Amino acid sequence: MARKKRKSKTVPETWSEWATAARRHGVFRSSIHKRKKLDSGSKITEEQYLLLKVLWDIECPTMRAAQDLNLGDSFGQARDWLATFQPFQAYLDTIDDDKTPGSSEIGIFEIPREQQRQVCELLQSPGSKGLQSLNEEIVNSSLLSFLTAICKKHPNFKARWTPQRASLTAEFREAHMECLLDGFLASEVTLQTQVIIEVKADRRDKHSPEVFMQEAAELVAALVTGPPKGLTKDRGLLISQDGDELYITKAYTLDKYIAIMQDQEKNAITKNDFLNI
Question: Fewest 10 Å CB contacts: which of 25, 56, 187, 273?
Fold first, then answer.
């Protein structure tokens, strides 16, 4: 009797971890271009995920985020502007005090704060069913409202957050991988996609490692698709909300990785060429 493959509890963070998992699944020397059929990003298997050649740096402390995400001057500019944006400061006070704010104080953050409170309440009532149960639509509305409130009033912000469930398709040699987004940020001037969005109703530890594999698939599809519908190499950004948890994720890639995944270069991906997230 064939032994059932043991499911991993996490995704590889180093090449040696990837190599161990790839050998276990029999794909160490394989290529995604040889697959005749591929699952969608939301249904991706561990075997297919390993063929994407991705490594995650999961433990990235918030204090190190600006540096590790390579946000440059944008981080300081955003921080300084939000420090003087009174509705945002009033919004932060409501989180500290867990109180219901007056609409005149919180302004554009009134709706996203109410939606966030709803997410938290439903998350604390896991037995809720039917109309009073937490689902991805509620979380998605909460996230998009929050991101819009943060960005809408900035005088130099010329882009729009949208809940449009756009599809990105990574075309490989023999098959394709389709990924459905929960929303994205696109420039109002060039229509270039700048950030993609993924949400889950529950917290991340409830659906790991699947969520890591799905988000990696979405980032690969966005980078392989390329601009303007996909992401540019220097802006492989994904924002996600899992229940009441917010995450910012960035993919770092080499031109060689993208060229190989687009089947423009026939060489194999070496351990130094992996996509790092």
Answer: 187
